[in-house]
Write a structure and sequence with these properties.
Elements: H1 10-26, H2 31-61
Helix pairs in contact: 1-2
Length: 77
């Protein structure tokens, strides 16, 4: 049976994404490598979004008074 790679944690995915962005901004990457980096970055964004949505749902379920309220993150400028 083939080993399946475990999905990264939010922090691992975000760290890898930040590294990809930095590399793409600072290095003259060949086209093939840029496309691969972009593809992986897109996958990591999806993982981060999925994990954030799951955390938001969990927060809604953990409301102290037992009611579900929408979680609103404060946006900092």
């Amino acid at each position: 049976m083939a080993d399946q790679k475990q999905e990264p944690t939010f922090e691992e995915a975000l760290s890898e994404l930040e590294a990809i962005v930095a590399k793409m901004e600072n290095a003259g990457m060949p086209l093939e490598e840029s496309v691969q980096a972009f593809t992986r970055g897109t996958q990591l964004v999806g993982i981060c979004n999925q994990k954030l949505q799951a955390a938001e749902l969990q927060i809604k379920k953990l409301e102290a008074d037992g009611t579900l309220t929408e979680f609103k993150a404060e946006v900092q400028d």
